[in-house]
Amino acid sequence: MSESCQLAAEDSRVVIAVDLDYFYAQCEEVRDLSIKNKPVVICVFSGRSEDSGAVSTANYIARSLGVKSGIPIRLAKRILREDSTAVFLPMDIEYYRIVSERIMEIIQSKGRKFEQTSIDEAYLDVTTEAGADYERAEMVGRSIKEGILTSEKMACSIGIGKNKLVAKMAVDSHKPNGFTVFSPGKVRSFLDPLPVGKLFGIGPKTEEKLRAMGIALVSELAKANPKTLSDHFGKNLGPTLREIANGEDNSPVVEKPIEQFSRIITLKKDAQTFDFKDVLAPLSSDLSEKLSSSNLNCKSIGIIAITNQLKIKTRSRTIPFPTQSGDEILKIASELFFAFFDEEKSVDGLKIRRAGIRIADLSPITTPKSGTLEDFV
DNA sequence: AATACCGGCGAGT
DNA sequence: TCATACTCGCCGGTATT
């Protein structure tokens, strides 16, 4: 191999990140073209009262007016009260899933190493296809963008880089309808001047902790004393923080098996206790159905309680025999809630706002082929 | 000492 | 009351072996 082909090992991959723009709201725009030039707000109504709940996402017209993910629906309506064209729609997750599945197939068809990380995001490692050649990787990226636009009439943003982290930083840097390439040589110059909070994986808490240590910029984090970082963030997270500041990420593009899932609902009213069966039975049966349709058992069953102070409390139990039974899940969850309330009953004013069930420690159900005893020998 | 389990926290879509 | 519904990962403490 000639000298000019030599690459640092860490620079030898090419990864494409695909992000579907304002996905839920765009799904609704495509379903009803007449709302495309209006503010569109996708709402999760909690059902406690008129317009209680939160905004899941909003299109860019709504965002430009200050409506963003997570704000109360009532606040969004207040912000848009003078815009009679504004559209508020309940989240239709089933529909978005169907659209997502079709789009993910398009992305997956463009490369052999594919990883979907959420309903609207995916990575493609095109090292094999592009031979670490960024021009060829760009062509793959363009063809993904065109494919999604042609077959689903949907805009997306594309980011290309030497690993998932850099591709993600690239895609996030230009949205919506972006197409951004951070070639290996350009990574430092892009990352260095950013505040650390802009790095994927560093949120408000970590940013504030770093700031208190005198580290505000990525360039500073990139050279920070490893010992100091480990002392403050632990032996795993500490080194990782320095790595992401340097644009390093060895994690492969691979489809990961699901590790856990949960169902949670908002109670009609905050309560010190509630009718376990009424609230938990639907959650249990949903979870049981999902286990069953995925041919999985779970060995860990847990509860989630969100208090009136919006603090998250959890309890969980490992059971001796894996199960997918809705009745079993309901029974354990009820016991955990009962014990939780018993434990917390002395806490003054503690009430539960939302209640949920989580299952984890999943294992595939091995269904032995009928009549082939030899398989067990 | 190594591993499992548990509850809290943080980050992200 | 204004504050959804998820998933993933790490941390530290404690229990188990």
Q: What can you see in these coordinates?
A:
The chain is α+β, with helices and mostly antiparallel strands. The chain folds into four domains: 3-23 and 96-187, 2-Layer Sandwich (Alpha-Beta Plaits), CATH 3.30.70; 24-94, MutS, DNA mismatch repair protein, domain I (3-Layer(aba) Sandwich), CATH 3.40.1170.60; 194-245, DNA polymerase, domain 1; 260-364, Dna Ligase, domain 1, CATH 3.30.1490. 39% of the residues lie in helices and 24% in strands. It has 13 helices and twelve strands. It has helices at 23-31, 60-64, 73-79, 93-108, 127-130, 134-152, 164-173, 187-191, 204-212, 218-222, 226-245, 276-293, 326-344, and strands spanning 15-20, 40-45, 53-58, 87-90, 113-118, 121-125, 156-161, 179-181, 260-271, 296-307, 312-323, 352-364. The strands form three sheets. Strands 5-6-1-7-8 form a five-stranded mixed beta sheet. A hairpin with a 7-residue loop joins β2 (40-45) and β3 (53-58). The longest helix has 20 residues, at 226-245. The protein binds a DNA duplex (13 and 17 nucleotides) through residues 23, 43-46, 52-57, 69-75, 91, 93, 117-121, 200-206, 233-234, 236-237, 240, 256, 258-266, 300, 302, 308, 310-318, 353-354, 356.
